[in-house]
Amino acid sequence: MHADTRRRLLRIAAGGAVWLVVSTLAALALFLGSSAEITLASHDAELRPTLTWSGPGEVVVHTGPVLPDVRMPAPGRVGVDVTLGKTDATTTAALVKRYAVLAGAPEGQIAKVTSAVTGLAIRAVLRGLVLGAVPVLVWLLVGAARSQELLRRARRPEGLVVFGAVAALLLALWQPGTADDEAPVGAASWISLRDFLGTVPMPADLADLEVRGDVTTAETRRLIASAISTYDSSKVFYSTAAASAAGLPLRKPGAGETVAVLVADRHDNIGMDAVARAVGDAAGATSVLDAGDDTSTGSSWEAFSLDSLDEAFDGYDDRWAIAGNHDHGSFVAGYLADRGWSELDGDVVDGPGGSTLAGVADPRSSGLGNWRDETGLSFSEVEQHIADDVCAADERVATLMVHDANLGREALRRGCVDLVVAGHLHLQVGPDKVVGANGRTGWSYTTGTTGGAAYAFALGSKPRREAEISLITYAGGRPVGIQPVRLETNGTFVVDAWIPLTYGPASEGDRSPTPPVR
Fold first, then answer.
1. Each residue of 13-71: pLDDT tens digit?
2. Could you say which DSSP state residue 283 is in?
3. Cα separation of 372 and 393, whole Å?
4. Could you tell me if 410 and 384 are in contact, meaning their C-beta atoms sit under 8 angstroms apart?
5. Of 100, 340, 395, 487, which has the most beta carbons under 10 Å away?
């Protein structure tokens, strides 16, 4: 190899090595010095990544002045330090109980934290790559001769002084957080939750949990002990139900058929999400229809409910949603849309199994009543508008999803839709046959509350009333059957027989549903 070529290759290798080393150090410094503002466990929270060089990382949660801080092992060497901020909870007891139920179904919150840390890491790497290129570019711009002269000067005493001063300045500007590396003088040390609570029975999966706090009153201990009981019963109830769902006698899709899961009125009950997914998987479902009221108020603190729903149905081919009357404002729709859910807004789109699908948010959501460029529309006006759009579609609409089935009455009356699906009532109604003015047959179906909600907020250790998931079968581009599945408050499933949806002439008699299977 020619000497000039060898020197050129060595310079390229040296430049690449410098770029890699500087980029790695810069990315690491940026990552450990970064933070993210997220909504976690119904709190505004600040998250900072941490790194443990020897052994697994740690997840540390600073809960505030009343409750003890919590620490647990992280899956790898990268951990997180979370400081919880404001929340909507009005009492400490209500907040602790909410923590317990959230801990029983943590998948959505874990996915959110993982996503936030991954985002910080990606940004740090990209910025590190740019910073690492700076010395290489400077070297190239200055030129080989001038660069060698600068290196010779850098080895002199005055050069070393300048280099040391710059390094000290950089270290002073970057002070990686050490909030949890050492406890402040006088602060309580970390102890296991078992030792903290004394004789309270402890679930095995909490063996690695540690707490630290200065407030150790009897009331605090009673609250935490109660939360442990709620956590255990919640996790056992829902995990048992999800496991049992695999053996339910559900109708499986035949050749050319597609099954969609219909959920509605979850009202923050994240425990039911894994159950709904398990029922869908057992039935061979590949898509999900969300008919609204995922929250109780539509506020940002309820993001935990949407995170859970998103995580539960991750991997499904298609996910459609509308907002219910309790999903006030634009937060719910925007949050799900940002996570890949298709928010229906009146347009006709491709639906399950090659069908056509339309839907619209409940106009009572925070009194918005918006429709395209019109504002302030009433419920009846939106009912007429959606009927106009459905009836004007190039193809007959197979499914119209609304939160309240009354919003689809006019479309059915005109005979423009095969099936209207809804929620809102917290109990099952139908499927009921409707023969339209044009002689075409349609069906109206209201599913019960998937969250087992008696009121607007359903988060708890078990459903407050029977919780329902409905399975809709599609074939030939239209819905051909529905199978309701209910989980009762005692943990028992009730599986109704599959109900066929027929589309014969107007003279065809209504079919009588077969009794449920218990």
1. 777 787 788 888 888 888 888 999 888 888 888 989 998 877 788 888 888 766 778 88
2. T
3. 16
4. yes
5. 487
Instruction: Judge whether 26 and 131 are in contact, CB under 8 Å.
Output: yes
Higher pLDDT, 151 or 113: 113
Q: Cis omega before residue 513 (within 30°)?
A: no
Q: What per-residue confidence (pLDDT) applies to 93?
A: 72
For residue 485, which phi and psi values (nearest 5 degrees)? -130, 130
Bridge partners of residue 125, in order along the sequence: none
* 204 and 259 in a common domain: no
Inside any domain, residue 509: no
**Any domain includes 518:** no
Can you read off the two tokens belonging to residue 499? 């109900």
Taking the C-alpha atoms of residue 271 and residue 217, their distance in angstroms, rounded to an integer, is 31
- Digit-coded pLDDT (tens) for 382-419: 899 899 999 999 899 999 999 999 999 999 999 999 99
Say yes or no: 473 and 422 in one domain: yes
pTM for the structure as a whole: 0.78
160 backbone dihedrals φ, ψ, rounded to 5°: -65, -35
Out of 126, 141, 173, a domain closes at 173
Residue 482 has pLDDT above 90, yes or no: yes
Residue with tokens 């829902």: 238
Helices (H), 251-358: 271-282, 303-312, 331-338
Residues 6 or more apart whose Cβ sits within 8 Å of residue 367: none
- The tokens for 215 are 């407030």
In a domain, 243, yes or no: no
> What is the spatial distance between Cα 315 and Cα 336, in angstroms, rounded to a whole number?
15
Which residue shows structure tokens 């002990």? Answer: 225
> Could you tell me the end-to-end alpha-carbon distance of the chain, in angstroms, rounded to an integer?
82
pLDDT score at 446: 97
Closest residue by Cα to residue 448 from 472, 473, 465, 462: 465
User: Domains in the chain: how many in total?
Assistant: 3
Domain extent for 24: 3-173
Report yes or no on 268 lying in a domain: yes
